[in-house]
Design brief:
By secondary structure, the protein is an alpha/beta fold. Helices cover about 55% and strands about 10% of the residues. The protein has a 5-stranded parallel β-sheet with strand order 2-3-4-1-5, with helices on both faces. A 3-stranded antiparallel β-sheet has the order 6-8-7. A hairpin with a 5-residue loop joins strand 7 and strand 8. The longest helix is centred in the middle third of the chain and has 18 residues. The chain is globular, with a radius of gyration of 23 Å. The structure holds adenosine-5'-diphosphate and magnesium ion (MG). The site of magnesium ion (MG) has 5 residues, from helix 2.
Length: about 400
């Protein structure tokens, strides 16, 4: 069928034509945002799940919902190797400047800008040329101690006071939280704790791979009190069906029942894969309805396109030892696997590969679902590795 009207959207962060099966998270978002806006206590949350389950597109949607609810919202991503303050500052600056542009200068907002400036100065953060506003002097004695766990709470409190002075609220939405350094994560927890103590209208919503839950370290008990960690996973069968069928239906195209069943089976209901199978099935079909044979043809092209992009992206950046570790895991099946079994397969001592395992966790390739267990952060990654091994 005409590839121009193909409705599916495979790709990291690509908004799907049908955001299937996520009503519960979106409802939780609405309730949380409305409560915070009214100055009522509400638990922030971090979406936790494997790659390709739809965390980023949910955060995009949450950003829209926040703005619709009257929030000043920021959506940032923490890339590997960049500090959380560096990532947050430009957005906080933008939000404070927006709060400042109303008719008469607001002293509270102005003071918050001074605090932001002092914070940036202390951390020696230069964001381009970090011009916070003409005539704003950095404040002294607040958010400028150089200790992030003390300064970030001060800064968030200042932002909260500025928002409250303007009768609005702020949503800080952070993607790829697993890359936040432990110390910074702990500062974030402290900052959210301060907000909740002072009942200030700032909400933090995050998303990341399962390893983010372990980042809390010594602030673990705070983290558990302040954050919920809703699991985002594969779609239930009826939602997976809707993710495939609805976008086509809107274009006047149907699926044979066994065609949908085949696609759901091949994808295990994982959102990224559903988009890929939908996309390739559409292109393979000569007309409506899309048949099981079309889906089978699509399987070939869907897999090769996944192998060239989704699966490969991060794999290419790994060291040979890290790759060997993953191949050993894949040889054992989908997982999770015991460290001892992986070591045995590599014919080495467990202790000798512990550093490789840690660096794979840091790089977001694997996580530890339970002590001594290791699992892939990418669904069906073992099958990808097996395909690669057969090729080499
Ligand atoms: N609820 C959903 N229903 C259908 N497709 C979805 C859904 N959520 C995400 N997708 C699709 O899955 C792919 C991956 O989404 P993304 O948000 O990048 O995942 P993650 O951030 O968890 O890695 C995208 O192509 C997106 O269109
Ligand atoms: Mg993402």
């Amino acid at each position: 069928m005409d590839p121009i009207t193909n409705p599916y959207a495979p790709g990291a962060g690509s908004q799907p034509p049908e955001l299937a099966g996520r009503a519960e998270v979106l409802e939780r978002t609405r309730v949380t945002l409305a409560r915070v806006l009214q100055g009522r206590p509400a638990k922030s949350f971090m979406l936790v799940g494997l790659r390709g389950v739809g965390k980023t597109v949910l955060l995009n949607r949450i950003f829209e919902i926040a703005e619709e609810a009257g929030y000043r919202a920021a959506l940032v991503e923490t890339p590997e190797g960049k500090s959380l303050p560096e990532v947050l500052l430009p957005s906080l600056r933008r939000i404070l400047l927006q709060l400042d542009t109303k008719e008469k200068v607001n002293e509270v907002v102005k003071r918050s800008l001074m605090i932001l400036k002092g914070f940036a100065k202390t951390l020696k953060i230069t964001v381009g040329d970090f011009d916070i506003g003409l005539g704003i002097e950095p404040s002294e004695g607040v958010a400028d101690s150089g200790d992030l766990e003390a300064d970030l709470p001060d800064l968030f409190e200042a932002v909260g006071r500025a928002a409250r002075a303007r009768g609005t609220a702020v949503a800080l939405i952070i993607d790829e939280v697993q890359y936040v350094a432990e110390k910074e994560f702990s500062a974030l927890i402290m900052a959210v704790h301060r907000l909740s103590q002072r009942q200030l209208p700032v909400v933090v919503i995050g998303a990341g791979l399962p390893q983010l839950v372990g980042l809390a370290g010594k602030s673990k008990s705070y983290a558990e009190r302040l954050f919920d960690y809703p699991q985002i996973g594969a779609l239930a069968t009826e939602d997976a069906v809707a993710a495939l069928v609805e976008p086509a239906r809107r274009e006047g195209v149907a699926y044979d029942t066994d065609a949908v069943a085949e696609a759901v089976r091949m994808t295990n209901g994982y959102p990224y894969f559903l988009q890929e199978w939908g996309y390739h099935s559409w292109n393979a079909a000569s007309g409506s309805p899309i048949s099981k044979d079309d889906v089978k043809i699509a399987t070939q092209s869907a897999l090769s396109s996944l192998d060239e992009s989704f699966f490969r992206v991060r794999f290419d950046r790994l060291t040979p030892r890290e790759k060997a570790y993953l191949f050993a895991m894949a040889g054992l099946g989908p997982g999770p696997h015991r460290s001892g079994d992986i070591a045995a397969r590599l014919e080495v001592a467990v202790e000798s590969i512990a550093p490789v395992r840690s660096s794979l966790i840091k790089k977001g390739m694997v996580f530890s679902p339970a002590h001594g267990d290791t699992a892939f952060t990418v669904p069906m990654f073992d099958e990808y590795l097996s395909r690669q091994q057969r090729l080499s």
